[in-house]
Design a protein that fits this description.
The complex is a heterodimer. Chain A is mostly helical. Chain A has a two-stranded antiparallel sheet with strand order 1-2. Chain A is globular and about 70 Å long. Chain B has one domain: Helix Hairpins, CATH 1.10.287.3510. Chain B is built from 4 helices and no strands. Chain B is elongated. Chain B starts with a helix and ends in a 13-residue tail after the last helix. The chains are: A mainly alpha, B mainly alpha. At the A-B interface, helix 5, helix 6 and helix 9 of A face helix 1, helix 2 and helix 4 of B.
Chain lengths: 501, 116
């Protein structure tokens, strides 16, 4: 069953551009991709919580490549499939005026195939290949409109992404040279027996730089605001909601936690990178006037929370406090799920705003709630969730992270988290004031009509934003998030699953 | 040891070119140089002085083969990574051509419609 996650989108991604050469069937393409993502969503929900491995070609793990489904990857699969399904639902209406939709949906499917591959594979080099599949299709998708700005953003993203990939490949080369294996589980067994640890540390540093470029941690973030604001709206939602998480944070933590058994000082480094990204991204977002750029900088800031949660988990593991470590990891992963829902909601909403007013400049527009009450309401839910207002999901995940930081004695970290929360609230209050409340400002380009195809996906995501707060309850958290956190924490469990030791 | 160092000097040359050059084509060439440096390094990891090609012939015992042949895995990795870098380079060149059509220049400091 596991290879289907890669095979289905790969096949669709190959066929659609081919069919388009002979016949332009826009509606058919959209429905095909919707069915594909719906099927994958169903499949990932059925498979949720299952633990299994699949050996490609029947070769046993240390020799052949294997796909691993454990708590963490099943959580990530559900997030990818859910966001992809809603995004395609939105794109069916939103993208219908564009040309070359066969290529659009083809590249979209290829990107999905790459992300599923990264989430499932248990082999470092195979992960690099899937990462490149997802990254190359996302470079092309960012420049899909072929305007001057889109091409510029795409080129910038491509250069930074290519440098990141080269660093990752160099890291893999050092890892293979010193450990002699590419299988993540096998690496974790062999890595402690290596006499000279300096090359392991070097490859860890290269991985942090390489995946940091993909995940847009703060010194490496400069491509993200351009790429995310220039891409077509459904792609912005996919990039911000899923791609940077799967290619950046998930891949990095899989290698560091499960493969290299957390080399010394890396958890501290991750925590401080997370804290820095969170704070600086938030500060820059305060000064933005373009709605999509503001959302993009806020993505950098929110990615900081996720990284910080995982990094703190690592610190507590190395200090020998397993219970707090689990809580911190749960906080990071909970925030990953939450950020995927509300950030894609807000990006899709910004596409709707652009449809109505013809611009995204916050100083020129206003009064969205009067023009379109439904999309105004969903946008409000999104902004309240992301700024951490109590009944919505963003509050609960931040609460878990703060509790873990205080319980574990990392008071400065808890202070930074709370302060950044206040900054987040500040810039989303600015959005509230400029965009939602008050009289209608600006010319209404599309006569204020928003079709159900635009607001139904927004409604689905808004309901998710409210409903996902339930994950805070210990019973539900224990079923959904705890297996994922334990998959990172208990490295031996992963090794046992793959190698059967 | 010297060959390893040469691979790293090549890598540094590529990185310098990506960071410091203003011409799009030179930046693309920098990426290509970096990718080739890493490929050369991967090949060097599996290299063995006066080693044989990693093909198991009839009549050779497995232990003798293991002690004399080169490591085939890095070679397989390099072929894959060359194919990937071909795709990346093709996309980069296509984008550079499109950018030239829009801006009439390859100078990165003049291609600046987006604010940082």
């Amino acid at each position: 069953m596991l290879p289907l996650f890669v095979a289905i989108p790969l096949g669709v991604g190959f066929l659609l551009p081919l069919i388009e050469e002979f016949r332009e069937r826009t509606r058919l393409f959209a429905v095909t991709v919707l069915l594909e993502t719906g099927l994958l969503l169903a499949l990932s929900l059925v498979k949720f919580g299952e633990k299994s491995i699949y050996r490609l070609g029947g070769w046993p793990p240390p020799i052949g490549i294997n796909y691993v489904l454990d708590g963490l990857s099943s959580l990530v699969l559900v997030v990818i499939s859910g966001i992809a399904f809603v995004t395609v639902l939105f794109a069916m209406t939103y993208m219908s005026k564009y040309e070359n939709l066969g290529k659009f949906y083809g590249l979209f499917s290829l990107m999905l195939a790459g992300m599923y591959g990264v989430a499932l594979t248990g082999d470092v080099f195979n992960m690099y290949v899937y990462l490149e599949v997802a990254a190359i299709s996302s470079y092309a998708l960012v420049g899909f409109n072929r305007g001057a700005e889109e091409l510029e953003a795409s080129f910038k993203y491509l250069i930074m992404g290519a440098v990141g990939s080269v660093f990752i490949l160099l890291g893999i080369a050092f890892l293979y040279g010193s450990v002699g294996s590419l299988n993540i589980a096998d690496i974790s067994v062999r890595v402690s027996e290596v006499s000279d640890q300096s090359f392991i540390l070097l490859s860890t540093a290269l991985f942090i730089v390489g995946f940091g470029l993909k995940a847009a941690f703060i010194p490496f973030h400069s491509w993200l605001p351009d790429a995310h604001s220039s891409a077509p709206t459904p792609i912005s939602a996919m990039l911000s909601g899923v791609l940077i998480k799967v290619l950046g944070v998930y891949a990095l933590s899989r290698i560091l936690f499960n493969g290299l058994n957390l080399p010394s000082l890396t958890p501290q480094l991750l925590t401080w990178i997370g804290a820095g990204s969170m704070f600086i991204g938030g500060m820059i977002a305060l000064g933005q006037n373009d709605l999509k750029r503001l959302l993009a900088y806020s993505s950098i800031s929110q990615m900081g929370y996720i990284t910080l949660g995982l990094g703190m988990g690592g610190i507590f593991i190395s200090q020998g406090k397993p219970a707090i470590a689990t809580l911190a990891l749960i906080g990071g992963l909970f925030h990953l799920v939450n950020h995927a829902t509300y950030k894609s909601l807000l990006f899709l909403f910004s596409g709707g705003v652009e449809r109505i007013f013809g611009t995204r400049d916050l100083s020129k527009i206003g009064g969205i709630t009067r023009v379109s009450p439904v999309s105004g309401a969903t946008g409000t839910i999104g902004t309240l969730s992301i700024s951490g207002v109590p009944p919505f999901n963003g509050f609960w995940s931040k609460l878990v992270i703060v509790i873990a930081a205080i319980w574990g004695g990392l008071y400065p970290i808890a202070g930074i988290v709370l302060f950044t929360s206040a900054i987040t609230l500040a810039y989303y209050l600015k959005v509230q004031r400029e965009l939602f409340l008050g009289e209608v400002v600006g010319e209404i380009a599309d006569k204020g009509k928003i079709s159900p195809g635009i607001y139904v996906p927004l409604l689905i995501l808004a309901i998710c934003c409210i409903g996902l707060g339930l994950l805070y309850l210990p019973e539900i958290r224990g079923i959904v998030l705890k297996p994922a956190a334990l998959a990172l924490q208990e490295g031996s469990e992963y090794t046992q699953l793959v190698l059967g030791l | 040891m010297l060959t390893y160092l040469l691979a790293f000097i090549l890598f540094a040359v590529g990185l310098y070119s990506v960071i410091n050059k203003r011409n799009l084509i030179k930046i693309i060439m920098g990426i290509i140089i970096m990718e080739h440096a890493v490929n050369a390094f991967l090949i060097l990891i599996g290299y063995r002085i006066s080693g044989k090609a990693p093909i198991l012939e009839k009549g050779t015992s497995v232990t003798e083969f293991v002690n004399s042949a080169m490591d085939p895995l890095p070679q397989a990795l390099v072929i894959t990574s060359i194919v990937i870098s071909l795709g990346v380079v093709a996309l980069m060149v296509a984008l550079a051509v499109r950018l030239y059509q829009h801006y009439g220049t390859f100078d990165i400091t003049e291609i600046r419609k987006l604010r940082g």
